[in-house]
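Example protein was shown:

_____
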Amino acid sequence: MSSIYESPNANLEVKPQGDFNLYKISGVGIATFFGTMFAGGILMAINFKRLGNDVAAKKALIFSALATFVIFLIIFLIPEAVDVPDAVFTLPQLFAMVQIAKKYQQDDIDTHAANNGGLASNWKAFGIGFLTMAVLLAVIVVLSILFLV
């Protein structure tokens, strides 16, 4: 028997709903490897958006764009005489994005998959990473030409 003074039985947990695909953590890693942290941030933003978290989607885009800008700035500030292996820049980005994606999205991805939700192809993640890098390289070439002339 319930009393009128009984607390409500509300479920406040946000659960993914709808018919959509989420990118796996491995997809975020692939996009990051081929297209910088910005590409990984794009996939995380897509996941957040599909999960209904618009604020987190915007933050993912902004912070990944800023991180990518800082990394490129550091690369351009290193004197040409100093030989720095590419892995010094690639591996920390990859590790950071995978860990961030695990922390903020792994539970939602697992819940979505457990509820028979679809998972996006890692080939799509590769394509987004590749296209992101192509656009970033085009921007860098244009900016280099403008500032060197």
User: Anything to note?
Assistant: The mean pLDDT is 89.
